[in-house]
Amino acid sequence: MISYSLAKENLSKFLESSVFHTQISAVRALAATSFNDRNELLMAFVVDPKKNLLARVIAVQMIEEVKATELRERIASFSPNASTERVGLGISVMDPRVGTRTSLKQAIEELLDHWK
To answer: What is the pLDDT of residue 5?
Structure first.
């Protein structure tokens, strides 16, 4: 992953956006930062019920990508409360941008299985 410099206050407004595309981009950008509390910010995003579910799934994937294994216990304790609603981009399956439809709970379970 490429790391880049970005002021936290600049990124924060995008993490707080009500637009899910913006939230997803912000979460991906957050994962590429070197903020001391980056992993904590990703975890806070995952558990925030006001955030878009798909963006929260992406945040789980970013936690895996940055190898934030210190979050294992917190993620595991949140798992029972995670949404089981399946989310995705809602586009044609022939569109190359289509991803696997998954739920937040499934994404967390897959992450925890991967970390075993």
So the answer is: 63
